Structures are given as structure tokens and as C-alpha cells.
TrEMBL record:
<keyword id="KW-0489">Methyltransferase</keyword>
<dbReference type="InterPro" id="IPR029063">
    <property type="entry name" value="SAM-dependent_MTases_sf"/>
</dbReference>
<dbReference type="Pfam" id="PF04672">
    <property type="entry name" value="Methyltransf_19"/>
</dbReference>
<dbReference type="GO" id="GO:0032259">
    <property type="term" value="P:methylation"/>
</dbReference>
<dbReference type="GO" id="GO:0008168">
    <property type="term" value="F:methyltransferase activity"/>
</dbReference>
<keyword id="KW-0808">Transferase</keyword>
<dbReference type="InterPro" id="IPR006764">
    <property type="entry name" value="SAM_dep_MeTrfase_SAV2177_type"/>
</dbReference>
<protein>
    <submittedName>
        <fullName>S-adenosyl methyltransferase</fullName>
    </submittedName>
</protein>
Length: 275
């Protein structure tokens, strides 16, 4: 699908309103977005001029986490919910460059992800794309395609990367994730990135951009983000800003928090193991 300002000939998509997946694609520099999405992305850039770099750092953190899981933790099954468009470098590429047999199930509630994914992954038997909703975790667990693709008697990495911010705490998103984690065996992992609130104006700007463009995109304190992990132990270095988060090498030369650019203090990542 090409970038277009013309009405979308595919009635499956409402292109008059921005969607999270397409705004994110626009921020990542992708082509699968429409005028309303680019207006949404422009609002982000108005309040956070480096919002595109935040999106890129988020994808880089995703790759760091998947490499840790595939290489160090021996994980070969990934359930990636809120996967976004499988463009740029995404989970299947990161996992399968370490283990070509790694299986990935992408789940997203935006139908554009399925439409795009079908074409892109037509030749990749180890990866599937399913349209479903994190708000209905049991539906994800009961999905026949997912059940046929992933072996739930073996460890699975559940990825909820760059999606929590789109839910208000009143919706209790941690309960949806708990339902999913309860279905996974010990040795499985939970990988999360989220918008953080440590009192910085640019973090507030990110929230404002999200609320004005998409009607969601809340920031949370690090203490609140830690609760997403449902009490499971975090893999070193624990929860940290993306640019400081190196699970494969927690002793690497980590920049001090004060040395990070303000845009690098908007997202945090963490990885927990079910024991
Ligand atoms: N995980 C990818 C990454 O970090 O690069 C993409 C993150 S993107 C910011 C958030 C994605 O979550 C979008 O593709 C959006 O469509 C999807 N999403 C939002 N709400 C969802 C829901 N309730 N269920 C499933 N996916 C959802």
C-alpha cells in the first residue's frame, strides 16, 4: 500500500481518522499512512520534535529485547501483541536472524497490519499475523491460528511493546496481560516498553500530543510501570530508559541519565521471567 491522500479504495480502512499503527508508521518514516495519520504525526512532532527518534529507539529496544530472548534465553516462540506494521525491523526479523526456526505470532487490532502482513509474510511460514484485541485476551488464547502456530506447553515470550500507553489505568490493562501470562508456562517472558513520567516537560508533551491526536497516550511513573510485570522478577538491568537498556550486556558502558537527550527520557523498557 502506498502513501496516498486519495480516498482509500479499500473500505476495510477508515482513512479519515488517524490510527495508532499508521501514526507510528509515519513517525518511523514508513509509507503505510494517510493524510490524517500524517497530521497526527505532525502533532507529535509539534510537542516532541524528536518523536520520530523516540519511535526508532523503541524499535531498537524491541530488537535488543528479542535478541536477548532468542540468543541468551533460548526463546523460540514470540506472541507479539500490538505488533504494528511489520515494516522497519520487527520481531520476526530480529528473532529469525538468531534462530531461523523461531516462530512469531503478530496480533494487532488494526486491520491494516493484517493486510500488510499477509503480503509481506506470504513466504515466511514461521510468522503469522492475526487481527485481535488485547482487551479480549481470552479471544487471543482461543484463536485457532495462534494455537496451531505456537506450542503453549513450551515457553513463549509475550511482547506488549509500545502499547500500554494507549490504555488508561481505569481499563486495568494489567489484568488482560495477567490472563495471557497465566496461560504461559514457567520459563516464559514478558517484554514491555511504556511512556514514563519522571516529571519532565517533554514527557508531558508526549502525552499531550497523544491525547490531541489519538485520544490516548498516557505517561506513567516508573513505579506504576513496574506493576505491569505482575510481580515477576525483572531481567538485569531491570526497568530503564531505552538508551540505557542492554539486557544482553547490562555491564556495557551505559550513559548516565543526565547525559541522555530529553527525548531519550520518554520511554522505558523491561523484561520479566515467569518462574
Ligand atoms: N509493538 C510495535 C513496536 O513497539 O514497534 C508497535 C507499537 S505501536 C505504537 C502500537 C500498536 O498497538 C499499534 O499497531 C496499534 O494498532 C496496536 N494496538 C492498539 N490498541 C490495541 C489493542 N487493543 N489490541 C491490539 N493491538 C492494539
Amino acid at each position: 500500500m502506498a502513501t496516498s491522500d486519495a480516498p482509500d479504495p479499500n473500505p476495510e480502512f477508515d482513512t479519515s481518522q488517524p490510527t495508532i499503527a499508521r501514526v507510528y508508521d509515519a513517525l518511523l518514516g514508513g509509507k503505510d499512512n494517510f493524510a490524517a495519520d500524517r497530521e497526527g504525526a505532525a502533532l507529535y512532532l509539534k510537542y516532541v520534535p524528536d518523536a520520530g527518534r523516540c519511535a526508532i529507539e523503541n524499535r531498537e529496544a524491541l530488537v535488543k529485547g528479542v535478541h536477548y530472548l532468542a540468543r541468551r534465553a533460548g526463546i523460540d516462540q514470540f506472541l507479539d501483541i500490538g505488533s504494528g506494521l511489520p515494516t522497519q525491523k520487527n520481531t520476526h526479523e530480529a528473532a529469525q536472524e538468531i534462530n531461523p526456526n523461531a516462530k512469531v505470532a503478530y496480533v494487532d487490532n488494526d486491520p491494516i497490519v493484517l493486510a500488510h502482513g499477509r503480503a509481506l509474510l506470504a513466504t515466511n511460514n514461521s510468522t503469522i499475523v492475526v487481527t485481535s484485541d488485547l482487551r479480549r485476551p481470552q479471544e487471543i488464547l482461543d484463536n485457532e491460528e495462534i494455537k496451531n502456530h505456537l506450542d503453549f506447553s513450551r515457553p513463549i515470550a509475550l511482547m506488549i511493546v509500545g502499547i500500554h500507553m494507549h490504555f488508561h489505568d481505569d481499563e486495568k490493562p494489567d489484568e488482560w496481560v495477567r490472563t495471557l501470562m497465566d496461560a504461559l508456562v514457567p520459563g516464559s517472558y514478558l517484554f514491555i516498553t511504556d511512556f514514563v513520567d519522571t516529571g519532565e516537560p517533554l514527557q508531558k508533551g508526549m502525552e499531550r500530543a497523544g491525547l490531541e491526536s489519538l485520544g490516548n497516550g498516557w505517561i506513567r511513573t516508573p513505579e506504576r510501570i513496574e506493576q505491569h510485570f505482575l510481580g515477576m522478577p525483572l531481567v538485569p538491568p531491570g526497568l530503564d530508559f531505552l538508551a540505557r537498556w542492554f539486557p544482553e550486556d547490562p555491564d556495557a558502558d551505559i550513559p548516565a541519565v543526565e547525559d541522555l537527550q530529553p527525548y531519550q527520557r520518554i520511554l522505558m523498557a523491561g523484561l520479566a521471567k515467569k518462574v
